[in-house]
Every structure is written in structure tokens, then in C-alpha cells.
Design brief:
Layout (H helix, E strand, L loop, with lengths): L1 H15 L4 H4 L4 E3 L5 E3 L1 H32 L17 H20 L4
Antiparallel strand pairs: 1-2
Length: about 110
């Protein structure tokens, strides 16, 4: 229920907020004549506070999920996918690493932030 609630919250938030996530938290960014940008330094403090709060919320939700599995359900952590890596996990992990790197490279090449 914790994960489902967070997903529903994020979906509703995405539908009701402006499309620019930086503007949502109050980052002021101005386009300069030479093609660059100037970012108001004070607005970056608001962004850092926002990111810190959401990182804390996500950590608390993860801890709550682990505690529910251990103490309430009395199941092993492998039931939610937390286990020691095995030799067979190395190749998929390397494949995911390469895929994420290529996706990031392609995104930067296309000009996305």
C-alpha cells in the first residue's frame, strides 16, 4: 500500500502541476543572449531543500517497507527482491549499466537536460 500510495500521489502531482519541474520548486532560470543560461543562486537553495525533503521521504518509505516485511509479515527480505548477489546477477547488472549509459549518452546527444 505504501508503494501504491506513492505512485498514485506522483501521478496526481504530475497531472496537476506545471510541466516544468524546475519551475515547480521555484528555480529561476533565464536565457542569455549568447545561448547560455543564468540561474538565480538563491533559487538553487530551494531546489536543494526540495530534493532533500523528497530524499528523506523516500528513505522513510523504504525503511517502512523493510520493517513491514520483517516484523509484520515475518518474511525474508528476498520476498521483496533484497538478497545477496549471485554469480548469475553479474551479466544482467553489466547489461543494465551499459543500457543506462547508452540511454544517457543518447539523451545528451539529443539535447535534453
Amino acid at each position: 500500500m505504501i508503494v501504491v500510495g506513492l505512485v498514485i500521489h506522483n501521478l496526481v502531482n504530475a497531472l496537476l502541476t506545471p510541466p516544468d519541474p524546475l519551475a515547480l520548486v521555484g528555480v529561476r532560470m533565464y536565457r542569455l543572449g549568447g545561448g547560455g543560461y543564468w540561474v538565480d543562486p538563491q533559487s538553487l537553495g530551494r531546489l536543494m531543500r526540495h530534493m532533500t525533503v523528497w530524499a528523506g521521504i523516500n528513505c522513510m518509505l523504504a525503511m517502512a517497507l523493510v520493517l513491514i516485511v520483517i516484523f509484520w509479515e515475518k518474511r525474508p527480505l528476498a520476498s521483496i527482491g533484497l538478497r545477496m548477489p549471485r554469480a548469475g546477477d553479474v551479466l544482467p547488472a553489466l547489461g543494465a549499466l551499459v543500457a543506462f549509459y547508452l540511454i544517457g549518452f543518447a539523451g545528451n546527444g539529443l539535447g535534453s537536460l
